[in-house]
Design a protein that fits this description.
The protein is mainly alpha-helical and about 70 residues long. The chain has three helices and no strands. The chain has two domains: about 1-45; about 45-74, no CATH class.
Length: about 70
Amino acid sequence: MAEREQRTHGWLINDALRGYLEQEELRAERDRQTLEALKEIEAGAPTTDGDEVFEWIASWGTEAEKPMPRLEKR
């Protein structure tokens, strides 16, 4: 692979490691944001039904487009 890409083995290893670390940073940030959002919901932040959101999105661009679902306190 190194010959085909005209790169050294070390460069390929570093590139792969860099990509892995970037993915792990994104995963860690996504996990942090998810936990923060769950805490907000548990504290009573307004939410909406997921099925209503999917139905709304599915209606986009149709003649029967639905209004955006409303957020409600739990």
